[in-house]
Amino acid sequence: MDALKNARWVPVVAVALYVAIPVLCSVYYAVFPGGSFSLGAYSVIAEDASLAAAATRTLSITALTIVTLVVTLVPALVAVHLWAPKLRPILEILCTLPLVVPPIAIAAGVVALLGWGARQGRGSLPNAISQFLQNPDLPLILVGTYVVLCLPFTFRSIDAGLRTIPLKAMVEGSAILGSSTFGTIFRVVIPNIRGSMLFSVFFAVALCFGEYSLAATLSQQTIPVWLDDVSSNNFRASVAIAVLLNLTTWALLFVATLSAGRFSPAGRAVRAEKTLQKKTTQKALAS
């Protein structure tokens, strides 16, 4: 019986080793050059100005991707849950389509579309739009493609969050008190699905900081593309920065997992019950 209980940890340990060993090897390679500890590989952060530019560009793309996802998908899902539940399967299919389309195929389609716009001649509207979307300082074309890539996971997360709350009763109660529809969404609905929202936000951050193929195909130097460029002449520095990003991503996902449980309706109910029990115990001791 004890052997069976211990056996359930075998898959967990196997997955942990599978994930941890490459990261630990990368950490050792980055900070133990020649067998002695050194943070010299991280000097590239201060010495290479292109890293700051790539980081700023990636942060801007990430922020716009998150805002676009929240502003478009949350109202759409709330509307479908409230007034058009029969359309939910259609919305689900549309949002999960990026899972079956390889990112490189999306990149090929985007490049073809931008190339068509550029060939319309200088001064034409398609050419102006193509140039605007590919602005090196803020490539909005990457925002659009990253929003598409995040749709499947964001849809699942927010949809699950909306299913756990009495959405219709909340919206009707808020409307009776005089709130508008968008006021209800941002003041009532979103605070009640904070766990799902945080998970979606952190996933979008992880994707924007880790996606390479689209950015490289569109010739936009984000952090992953910068790492690839630097690796040709300073491989240890590229590994050091990659390790830093990897650990940051894992930390964000860890926080997202904790937040999803803490801010879920079940988590709030448990905390409220513990608070009530604590107050009841204190009153009983005082009396």
Automatic annotation (TrEMBL):
Organism: Nesterenkonia lacusekhoensis
UniProt name for this protein: Spermidine/putrescine transport system permease protein
Membrane-traversing stretches: 12-31, 63-84, 90-117, 138-158, 197-215, 235-258
Domain ABC transmembrane type-1, residue spans: 53-256
Main location, first listed in the record: membrane
Keyword list, A-Z: Cell inner membrane, Cell membrane, Membrane, Transmembrane, Transmembrane helix, Transport
Family assignment from sequence similarity: Belongs to the binding-protein-dependent transport system permease family.
Pfam families: BPD_transp_1
Membrane topology, from the record: Multi-pass membrane protein
Subcellular location: Cell inner membrane; Cell membrane
Lineage, top ranks: Bacteria, Bacillati, Actinomycetota, Actinomycetes, Micrococcales
